[in-house]
């Protein structure tokens, strides 16, 4: 995809272009193309690159500034900010915590449904573009690893759409600590389809601004994944088969009795 290409616009309103441009720039920042402390390209350069007006660029930068991704400083341009200090602090604490699977499951059950409700109340047009883009680029024919990566990206983007950096830190912790064991939830096409359908249902409620519906959709999603599979726990392997016992030798034919021979 070239610099002049976008990820696809689904918003019909005029807010679509700034929101989409903000989403693209945020994705490049996350990917490391614009590291923390560096400057984004200037307004004219971005406008020429994406073939949009300077007003659209300014609106996109304003969206990123509202999300504390960048800071515009007079005479210095638009600076990419480092990760929020509060997020770093809580991530440090969580990394030291017990990573038992049951604890992760309880954390998700307690945090993610109300988080989805909060996202429905607060998600910006840019957040909706990001969430829609992740769903649009998810395919049940992906490898389990690729599908898992998109799954984690969706849940993290949903957390980030709440505008609360601590929730985003919690979801990064969940992703990091459970990644090794969550592959089971994407091991088959059926499981990948269930996961994707759940994401679509959640997004529909978030896009509609339906907080109770988004919370219920997340609950349904976690339940649909199924029990311990919410954590990606692999099914137990069948017990090792024992060597088959030696087959019994066929019984030797019995000698006919005198009665059978017609003797008296």
TrEMBL record:
Signal peptide: none annotated. This is GntR family transcriptional regulator. The keyword Calcium does not apply. Residues 235-264 are annotated as: Disordered. It comes from Bifidobacterium thermacidophilum subsp. thermacidophilum. The keyword Transcription applies. Keywords: DNA-binding, Transcription, Transcription regulation. It holds the Pfam family GntR. GO terms for molecular function: DNA binding; DNA-binding transcription factor activity. Residues 15-83 form the HTH gntR-type domain. It comes from the Bacteria. PANTHER family: GNTR FAMILY REGULATORY PROTEIN, TRANSCRIPTIONAL REGULATOR, GNTR FAMILY.
